[in-house]
Amino acid sequence: MSKPLLYLLAGNGGSAEWWDDAVPHFTRYQVVPLELPGFGINPQPPCADLAAYAEALIAATVRGSAIVAVGVNALLVLHALQRAPGHFCRSVLLAPVGAFLWQRRLPALMSPMPIRKTIHWLLANKPALFAHKFSRQAWPAAHYARMGAGYARCRAFVPYWDMLRADTALPLLEWVEDPVELVWGDQDKVLGIEQAAAWSAILARADLSISLKPGWGHYPWIDAPAEFVHWLESGERGFVAHTKGGRLRLAACAGQPVPAALSLMQGDDAGLNGFLANAPDATWAVRSSSFGEDQADAANAGLSTTYLREPAHNVPARIAELHGAGVEEVVVQRFITPVLSGIAFVRHLAVELEWVEGHLESLADGQASPERAVISRLGASWSSGEFRAAHGLTQQTLWNFLQGVLRVFHYVPGDVEWAWDGSQLWLLHYRPISDYGWRRHLTAANIAEILPPQPSRLVEYAQRRAAASIPAIMSRWDARILQDNEPFTALFGDASYINNDLFLARLADWGIASSNYAGEVGGATPELPLRPLRLLRSLPLFLRMQRIARGHLLTLDAQLQRFDRELAALKEQGADGRQLADWFSRFYVFVVQGNLCIATALASSGGDLLGRPPTAYENVEHCPHRLPWETDPATPRPALSDLPLQAFASWPSAIRLASRVGLPGLRGYFLQVREWYRDNLMRIFFRLHHAMPTADREHWFAPHPHIRSRDGSFWQDGREGSEKASGFMIYPGQVRGVLGEDILLEDTLDPGRHAVYQSARAVIARMGGRLSHGSTLLRELRKPSAVMPDVDLAWLGREVLYADGELKLIE
């Protein structure tokens, strides 16, 4: 009987020879050291990005095999699993790279090319200089020579640092569901063991176990190859990460103040007596830590009884009761007697608090009414109430503590149970938030223009999966977006709306008034005042933002072509609906990130003094891919026809130079790019519609069951905003006619209704922004038009006069 296949993949600089010490010790597995393109003796050139490397890894390995991977290449395994769930039956990842990239010193140090090349030369030619990073042990000279040879042959080392950015490392990884085993050594001098808690939040839905190995460094298979192989072949998986006990253990490893705790699986009471004996005078809390509790998509809190203030001699019986009730894991934790305790719903922008005097049990049992407050970085409109200092605990101290917990879990919003004993704050529990109505500002503006109120299941599936990954693109110019960790869209009534907080948080930090944002995208926003000093300090950031956004436009064509090829390959392979939906999720991230960069370029374009070239709307005849609600691929389409992607606009050399050096006056050219981009997206959507197998259309093309019922802007907790949406003229003109017939009255502008707009005398929308696709279309058509939020619906069917953004009833 053949042995199962296990691939061995070292990190950046790694070669197959790095595994030579470990390979002879394997008895259970047939092992194959891997060298990806640009590594070792692999003749292929380095790949262009992490996505290409993930595809190369999938192509180089047999589905259903196992893999051990290290560092940055451990990240590639996760990207491969995101693209091809189940490709690896076992994934053992040693100290994966990807968490906190924007805060780590090494990526910043390696950013300048001269430094990067110098470090590469030193690693290749003087590897012993890095001995303290490689291992606490003194290796033989041959070991350092072997490491140096690997770096010397690694052509991917230098470009890898450009690929591995905070905005490219983690997209969609929260949707990986495969079994993943993470391993850290407490002597790792490259990536500290405290990163384990962050990865438990990043891999929120994976079947995740974590092993924290005392004495291991970054290269345990070189330091102690026999021990490493024995551990690997034993199948030991470490502790389950996504449980109450698992998260508390991870938080403690990351330095959070967690009361002493011990997690016990069924049938395992080893160490209990010694643990209890360490604090003979203490009382204990015995809590369930079931595998079904506190998950990313379902809290399921309170499924089992929690026992408090238990003396040591009662603890074994309480553990047995919980195990007897089917609880897989039980946490025994030293009981803290608090003078204040509470629950905090924590995100980087705001903390929503409930607290009581004494222990939290009085709140859970309904015996006490909590005090409440919302504390927000964004200002008065987002805040309510206050936390008044009590028993020596101040609001600032509590805020700092809660934000520290949030950071440990990679800024993923969480529900935190805390206690104050009069001198110290304690973390009692952290769980990811599965459902909570934040005081977060949402809007239907913009999204209502491109998607129907009840989009297809396909769109809603992709939109929800992509929401948390989309904003990372903005970290290229402002890394604070990653700490905010706000999704692009958020749910209200189980329907998706644009999350204004994502954008308003940046405006607040930049000192820009929120009215600017409302005018661009439509709708209304809470007040954020102009702050001239912040604005002045942000000028270097704006220059970087303009440079990066304009540069990103030049990458769109190649990326579109690649996604188009991927879709064609999936169709050729006979992909089912789920595979196409997962591909669409990746594509959706790319689509919206591209639109964000285009919008940024437009916002900094400084008018159209350098010209207004025609857009794709110059010719909208005979375009089967352009139709109402065209942004939903499930929208019925004409028969499949050949619609090749249109080439990127060919600009005069003077315009290319102006864009490169950041000159103003390019709005017309950036609008041309935006509508070229949208037109090509619709061509791919057209092909996606026809690629969906007939048997799967009933599910994926069916309407999502929940309707986007709110218009305008509102708070996620359900309260209406008091702000008024402003109107503006899109295109001048004077027209007389019947409102709703000659002069159209639209809730929002849908560019797919271009034929209807062409035949109308004028068009009025009740919601929209200056930079919307619909506004651009109406300017291209030179159609008298405006956004007017307050049109009296009683005027429908009556004769009116529209004149340059004003509407009058003709009596």
What summary fits the major beta sheet? 7 strands, mixed
Number of helices: 30
Shape: globular
| Distance N to C terminus | 92 Å
Question: Radius of gyration from the CA trace?
Answer: 29 Å
Q: How many DSSP-defined strands?
A: 27
Return residue spans where pLDDT drops below 50 for at least 5 consecutive residues: none
* Average predicted confidence as pLDDT: 90
Structural class: alpha/beta
Strand content: 15-25%
Domain count: 4
The level of helicity is 25-40%
Question: In which order are the strands of the major sheet placed?
Answer: 2-1-3-4-5-6-7
SSE order and pairing:
Layout: E1 5-9, E2 30-33, H1 50-60, E3 65-70, H2 71-83, E4 88-94, H3 105-109, H4 113-125, H5 131-134, H6 141-153, H7 157-163, H8 166-169, E5 179-185, H9 195-202, E6 207-213, H10 220-223, H11 225-234, E7 239-240, H12 244-253, E8 261-265, H13 272-277, E9 284-288, E10 307-310, H14 315-324, E11 329-334, E12 340-346, E13 350-357, H15 361-364, E14 371-376, H16 395-408, E15 414-420, E16 425-432, E17 441-443, H17 447-450, H18 457-466, H19 480-484, E18 489-492, E19 495-499, H20 500-510, H21 514-521, H22 532-537, H23 539-553, H24 556-573, H25 577-603, H26 653-661, H27 667-691, H28 694-700, E20 713-715, E21 728-731, E22 734-738, E23 743-746, H29 754-759, E24 762-765, H30 773-781, E25 785-787, E26 799-803, E27 806-809
Parallel strand pairs: 1-2, 1-3, 3-4, 4-5, 5-6, 23-24, 24-25
Antiparallel strand pairs: 6-7, 8-11, 9-10, 9-11, 12-13, 12-15, 13-14, 15-16, 17-19, 17-20, 18-19, 21-25, 22-26, 26-27
Helix pairs in contact: 1-2, 4-6, 18-25, 23-25, 24-25, 24-27, 25-27
